[in-house]
Amino acid sequence: MPRTATSADRQPLDNQRRKALKVTGALAASLSAGIPLSVFAQRAKIRAVMPNVFIPDPVRPIITSQSGGVEVDNLPYVSPSDSLAKLMAPGGTGQYDMIITLTNFAKGPALGAKAGDERLLALDMSAIPNATGISKDFQSEVVRRDGKTYMLPIVSGFESVVFDASKVNPDDPLTQSWNVLFSDKYKGRIAWRDDAHGMIFTAALAMGITDPLGMQPAQVREVQRFLIDRKKNIRTMWTKFAEAVNMIATGEVHCLYGWIPMRAALEKQGLKASNNWPKEGLPSWTQSAFIPRDSKQAAATHKVINAMLSPEFGRKLTDVTEYPSTIAQVASGYDKAYQTKLGFDVAARGVRRISFELPQQMDVWLEAWNNVKAA
Amino acid sequence: MAVSSTSSPPMLQRWQRLNPFELASWLYGLIFFVFLYSPLVMITVLSFNDSRLTGFPLKGFTTKWYEAVLANQPLLSALANSIYVGLASAAIATTLALLMALAFRHEFWGKRIVLYMILTPIILPGIIGGIVLLIFFGYLGVRPSLFTTVLVGHVNWVLPFAFLTLYPRLHKFDRSLEEAAMDLGARTSQVFWEIVFPIVRPSVIATAIFAFSLSFDEFIRTIFTVGSDRTIPVQFYVLIVEELSPELPAMAVIIILLTTVASLLGFAFMRRADRSNPA
């Protein structure tokens, strides 16, 4: 007959239970001692569509700390057209929390034809006090309608000719002109960008057309003929960043239509790279941040935009990418030579800045460029 | 009789017997394959180049770019995402393709229209397909992510290929085997699992492997449907467009190896399927 358990039997079991509880408690205590309580609080995260170059890893901690812990989850960036397509697609105003793209490209479609058509949220400027630090040079880039602000410029940039200064003389007047891409002097050592907007815009400037955006179709055809005639001087056309940088670094070309970070990347390779300040005009742009109308993280996004307009973020971004921040205080933190190198003082130097907008008749430009490529 | 000490080796004699047309054909074939495979050889060579630039001249041998790939969390994460989505797409698309191929063995109303609908994603340009998916999911209010929008886009792309691979093999399947099994009292499910599936299994596996390869390489539809996650083609694109990443050739070699192995496995299973179920 099985005997019932006595208190003598229960003692070892009780001891085992107590041991187990002790161990579990000790484990929990030691684990939680190493874990800050804030971890258990859910961090706000916003979904952003923006060029990845404007959110390199070194700037992320600045955004997170200045926004009170908000993190930016940035989607793969393709182009301004893709960003706008995402906003304009059905449901697009609610899928993303922040978009940063070319100001002049996006503002028209994003604002719509009239008040009430906006696909953007009017910004609460009281939540973005750092906006007062935007340089006066970029105040015209702030997008407003009926007294409300919709887009704020975060970073600026320009198109120019990037060249190997050991092979191309920076002091040559030709170098400081768009004609360096079209003249015979560097025949076979030039690369154009495979881009209708950029190439027709700059070719028009090289031809002496002061207002490329105002060109009539007949003028565009003249530019097309000019480009076809000058095409014999080029080595190739580039489409990707890495392609362009490699071409100059390996000596395949000496100069090309390029961007600021290309110059920075080449300098990091030890190359004596520079860019010109074309006397005909410097196509300039800004990239602005805005919040899609139905974003569910508008409050957090305001904080992120405010963080991105802080001098700390602007300085770090400019240090890493060499793109000029739009915040006035950032420029004054550099010495004169570096300000000149980055282009902060282009207006003061008398370099003509031209807004790098899209033309009304982009289809005419596209057709002309396709003819240039086919020739 | 003494053997001539000046007789040509057999291979040379064979070449010497070729007429000019045959020689030209061989030369054309050689140039064709050189043209086809030299970029792959070049990228493999450049992946071992001790230079931050992806290009010539070669500056020395190194394996550090492979080490950089293994230490690059975003790249590895994108690779893992591509593998997960690839496996899921392959499983779903192969299952659906198998069911459709079985159905297509029978006549039914609208069969031709259904066939055209199945094949539409092949005909539609990728960018149009991507935009359609972007608009579709926008209307539904579905947030882009790997296992919602991306997976649907990949299955949509891969399914017609899976169907076109499986259908001919099921079409020539000997139906008398099924009839015999049914005559002997087998239920429909038994006929499928114990008679049909074991015979077509190599084809199904080969189809799944091909489907995985297609999904793994898919870019254009993914870029419109991916959220903040990245697949490996998307990550590559972002790196090439905006950065100078010297470890990209090494990553490319790894991906080429993965997809080559997958494709070869697929071919091997396909050959096995053809041998076990000849026309």
What is the topology?
The complex is a heterodimer of chains A (375) and B (279).
Chain A: H1 7-33, E1 45-49, H2 60-66, E2 71-74, H3 80-88, H4 92-95, E3 98-102, H5 103-111, E4 143-145, E5 148-158, E6 160-164, E7 190-193, H6 196-206, H7 217-230, E8 234-238, H8 241-249, E9 255-258, H9 260-268, E10 273-275, E11 282-290, H10 298-308, H11 311-321, H12 328-332, H13 336-342, H14 346-349, E12 353-355, H15 362-374
Parallel strand pairs in A: 1-2, 1-3, 7-8, 7-9, 11-12
Antiparallel strand pairs in A: 3-11, 4-5, 5-11, 6-9, 6-10
Chain B: H1 10-17, H2 20-46, H3 64-71, H4 73-103, H5 111-123, H6 126-140, H7 146-171, H8 175-183, H9 188-217, H10 220-225, H11 232-242, H12 248-276
Structure notes:
The complex is a heterodimer of chains A (375) and B (279). Chain A is of the alpha/beta class and 375 residues long. Chain A has two domains: 45-157 and 284-355, 3-Layer(aba) Sandwich (D-Maltodextrin-Binding Protein, domain 2); 159-278 and 356-374, Periplasmic binding protein-like II (D-Maltodextrin-Binding Protein, domain 2). Helices cover 40% and strands 16% of the residues of chain A. Chain A has helices spanning 7-33, 60-66, 80-88, 92-95, 103-111, 196-206, 217-230, 241-249, 260-268, 298-308, 311-321, 328-332, 336-342, 346-349, 362-374, and strands at residues 45-49, 71-74, 98-102, 143-145, 148-158, 160-164, 190-193, 234-238, 255-258, 273-275, 282-290, 353-355. Chain A is globular and about 55 Å long. Chain B has 279 residues and is an all-alpha fold. Chain B has two domains: 10-46, no CATH class; 65-276, MetI-like fold. Chain B has helices at residues 10-17, 20-46, 64-71, 73-103, 111-123, 126-140, 146-171, 175-183, 188-217, 220-225, 232-242, 248-276. At the A-B interface, helix 3, helix 4 and helix 8 of A face helix 6 and helix 11 of B.
